[in-house]
Write a structure and sequence with these properties.
With 305 residues, the chain is an alpha/beta fold. 45% of the residues lie in helices and 10% in strands. It contains 11 helices and 8 strands.
Length: 305
């Protein structure tokens, strides 16, 4: 099993294109993978919340990973691998996801303990899952929602030093915790990938490996520029960060439908299985204006449109 650290940079949380009939648009998915990679993504996070994970069948989840991994090669793909149920079942799903082509099976942290169950319970179940999945590479996904389970910095650092974990998608949004968690995994194969665009520069300064969030379905090249040049051009990086922060509310409204509207030039249908509310004309104008700003920044940075 390949446990080398993943390349630093942007790992878009992939959306899933659907046909008018409701099935997965496989040809559209191929075009989408190409679009991400042509704009500098270092790898892809498939089968995640942005992919409408809960609205996919189990077989669709594995098929989605397999198709993305084949299309993206040699770029690495990570994919969610735990979908609830008994730990042996979750372990089997992790193994199957790696067999489908994922470099790492990503553990949804909230699936190992629910409600008021203690952190000790969570850690014990994680240890069992690690034993059941050995030696495959793993990752963590702090998926936003009522059952999200954030990993404390000291615990994350201890787990990183086992060498089993390659990817951590962080949704902390707390600057102090972000810095502590990024520092805790320094020197290990575990990369800290921030999901919160507004704190991306802070996490990069703290030693973070990159970004894995919704903004990468709109302007992965801008995010990639920030991940690459944040230290070399600090003043300009701060300006780019400010703009990315300001744009976040506009692109996040009606997401992932907003991303499919933005990517309609790829021939993607504006269809979601989880989104039911139709954006208003005002919503669409706001999205269009936000993306026009991103285009101007892209031009100023000398990035291809």
């Amino acid at each position: 099993m390949d446990r080398r650290a993943l390349a630093h940079g942007v790992y878009p949380t992939m959306i899933t294109p659907f046909t008018a009939a409701g099935g997965i648009d496989w040809a559209g998915l191929d075009r989408l993978v190409d679009w991400y990679l042509e704009r500098g993504a270092k790898g892809l996070f498939a089968v995640c919340g942005s992919s409408e994970l809960d609205a996919l069948t189990l077989d669709e989840r594995f098929a989605l990973c397999e198709r993305v991994a084949a299309r993206a090669a040699p770029h690495p793909v990570v994919a969610s691998g735990t979908f609830g149920g008994p730990l042996p079942l979750q372990a089997g799903d992790c193994r199957r996801m790696v067999e489908a082509g994922a470099r790492a099976a990503v553990i949804l942290t909230g699936n190992l303990a629910v409600g008021e169950e203690s952190d000790d319970t969570w850690r014990a179940r994680l240890g069992e899952l690690m034993d059941l999945t050995a030696p495959i590479p793993l990752g963590f996904y702090e998926r936003p929602g009522s059952n999200n389970r954030a990993i404390p910095p000291d615990t994350l650092g201890e787990l990183a030093r086992t060498g089993r974990f390659l990817f951590h998608k962080d949704t902390t949004c707390d600057l102090e915790l972000i810095g502590a968690k990024a520092a805790a995994v320094a020197g290990t194969p575990l990369g800290f990938y921030n999901a919160n665009a507004s704190s991306l520069l802070h996490s990069l300064r703290a030693g973070g490996a990159g970004f894995s969030g919704i903004a990468a379905s709109f302007y992965p090249d801008l995010i990639g520029w920030l991940c690459t040049f944040w230290d070399e051009e600090p003043d300009l990086a701060k300006s780019v960060q400010d703009i990315i922060t300001a744009l976040e509310p506009a692109i996040g409204h009606h997401y992932p439908l907003s991303a499919k509207i933005h990517l309609r030039g790829l021939g993607l249908e504006p269809i979601c299985r989880v989104e039911r509310e139709v954006p208003s004309a005002s919503d669409l104008r706001t999205l269009e204006a936000a993306l026009a700003v991103a285009d101007r920044v892209r031009k100023d940075l000398g990035l291809a449109s």
